[in-house]
Write a structure and sequence with these properties.
Blueprint lengths: L1 E9 L6 E8 L6 H18 L3 E10 L1 H7 L2
Antiparallel strand pairs: 1-2, 1-3
Length: 71
C-alpha cells in the first residue's frame, strides 16, 4: 500500500494548513502509478473538502507498512 501525503491550506486563510494522509491501493501499486493515478484520489478529496486547497502532495510507502517492517 502507498500513501498520498497531502498538505492542504484553507482558501480563506492560506496560512492555516494541515497534513492529510490518503491510502492509495491499486493493482501492482508503485510510486509511479501513485503519481500518475493518485490524482483521482486527490480530486475526490478536494471535492469533499471545498474550503481547502491542495498546496502540495507526494506518494510514499505507507506508514502502516513501515511500522510492520520495524517490528
Amino acid at each position: 500500500m502507498i500513501e498520498i501525503l497531502v498538505s492542504a491550506c484553507l482558501i480563506a486563510s492560506p496560512g492555516t494548513c494541515k497534513d492529510v494522509s490518503l491510502s492509495y491501493m491499486a493493482d501492482k501499486v508503485t510510486p509511479y502509478n501513485c503519481m500518475m493515478r493518485g490524482q483521482v484520489a486527490l480530486t475526490k478529496w478536494a471535492a469533499g473538502h471545498p474550503k481547502w486547497k491542495i498546496a502540495k502532495w507526494k506518494c510514499s510507502a505507507s506508514r502502516e507498512m513501515a511500522r510492520l517492517r520495524h517490528r
